[in-house]
Amino acid sequence: MNVQLSDPHHIFLFILGLIIYGCTNGPSSESQANKVLIDDGKISHISNIIETNIEKEIIPGAVLCISQKGKEKFLKAYGWQDIEQDIPMKINSIFRLASMTKPITSVAIMILVENGSIKLDDPVSKYVKEFSRLKVMKNEQLEPLKRPITIKDLLTYTSGMASGFENSSSDQLMRRMDQNQFQSLEELVGFLCTIPLVEQPGTRFIYSYNSDVLARIVEIVSQQNFGIFLKEHIFDPLKMTDTYFKVPPSKQNQLSSIYIYQDSLQFLIPGSKKYEVFPRGNSGLVSTIKDYSHFADMLLFNGNFGKKQVLKEETISKMLLNYLPDRKLPFEGGEVLNGVGFGFGFAIDLDNTLRTNSPAQRLANLPKGSFWWPGGYRTYFWVDPENELTVQIFIQTRNLGHNFITSIIDLIYK
Predict the structure, then answer these.
(1) How many CB atoms lie within 10 A of CB 55?
(2) The CATH number of 40-92+231-259+285-307+322-412 is which of 3.40.190.10, 3.40.710.10, 3.40.50.150, 1.20.1440.230?
(3) Residue 273 CA from chain centroid, whole number
(4) What is the pLDDT of residues 214-252, one digit of tens each?
């Protein structure tokens, strides 16, 4: 049909139609999620930073993965998996996750909460009987607990358990603990129950062994080894085929060496060494960057990965609430991150404040609502719901500050 736009009535209807189409199909102010553009120029700058750090012997190598809307935007390996043996870093190189095990443990416990096997307000002593005997050490005097430690206290790291980083007598006992003496979660958690708490439950955030206790509860309730539970309920649905507590012999050649940074890189642990730890919740997992990107994407998409649902949307939402009332997260080296909260296993950025006073503070220069966590060997991941973005960067270096990762954060959000 030919419409004569010279007719004022037709012109009015045509313009009205365009306005209606724009309102219903065009981007609204609320739907413009992709404010961050991952383009070739930005990737080139990021690659230059990584390559410069390798050339200066600050890091041996790295793998970077950036996904947006569930689609891989960039994936590349840089440098060396093992310098001495001339093994280049690869996309499928295996990394020790250290504390990036904790978010996976939180998802495992929430699977049991969601299916009704446990409740967040359940006392831990309901499952680990030894917790009923715990007391609080204050001024070298033992005090009874004002209320039991709950599963929620463990998830939010407010159980009152000592970290080993402070000066109390309980912290001193934690520092003397040889983790290699334990052969199972049952043994480790049994030992933890012999050390008095340093705070009443629910009092303050302390970065302790809470996730190990959560993992033991998973074992007790599910009647499965923690590693088997993770494989069946998380790794298999998410196609995390290279995530283990024990690296299989056929995968040993993928395991990255660990280096320690002291003015320059120094060799620390050969990548060819056998890696095997008993399944636990605080640390211990190894993984590839693609495997962990699947986990991050599941969190971004409210518990879903492809056609698989690991958790419901309302469960993910509960995990991403802030449970620190003062909105201040204690972090490495005694630093406190203002405007950063903690959910069930993640740091959460609560505002858009631009932090500039230290590299650790700058880790939180992410859009409001983003959540993240690092590992001790400098693996990092974050999820940015506002931009539908997930980022993982994996390194294997001890004693390395946060300047490297914060420079990448700055470039991505430039």
Answers:
(1) 9
(2) 3.40.710.10
(3) 26
(4) 999 999 999 999 999 999 999 999 999 999 999 999 999
> What CA–CA distance (Å, rounded) separates 155 from 307?
28
Tell me if residue 382 falls in helix, strand or coil.
strand
Percent of the chain topping pLDDT 70: 89
CA nearest to 179, candidates 277, 247, 275: 277
Burial 167-182 (b: 16+ CB within 10 A, else e): ebebbebbeeeeeeeb
Question: Is residue 22 pLDDT above 70, yes or no?
Answer: no
Comparing CA positions, the residue from 230, 5, 221, 199 lying closest to residue 97 is 230
Q: Is the pLDDT at 266 greater than 70, yes or no? A: no
- Identify the pLDDT of residue 268: 56
The packing angle between helices 403-412 and 40-55, to 10°, is: 170
Long-range interactions of 383-387: CB distance < 8 A, separation 24+ = 383/296, 383/299, 383/300, 384/36, 385/300, 386/33, 386/35, 387/33, 387/34, 387/35, 387/36, 387/68
CA distance 99 to 207: 11
* CA atoms of 211 and 171, how far apart (whole Å): 17
pTM of the full predicted structure?
0.89
Q: Count how many Cα atoms sit within 13 Å of the Cα of residue 52 in the half-sphere of its side chain.
A: 9
Determine the angle formed by the axes of helices 102-114 and 289-300, rounding to 10 degrees: 40
Residues 215 and 281 sit within 8 Å (Cβ to Cβ): yes
What b/e sequence results for 380-401 when a residue is b if at least 16 CB atoms lie within 10 Å of its CB, and e otherwise?
Answer: bbbbbbbbbbbbbbbbbbbebe
Look up residue 239 and give its DSSP letter: T
Residue type, 12: F
Residue 109 phi, psi (nearest 5): -70, -35
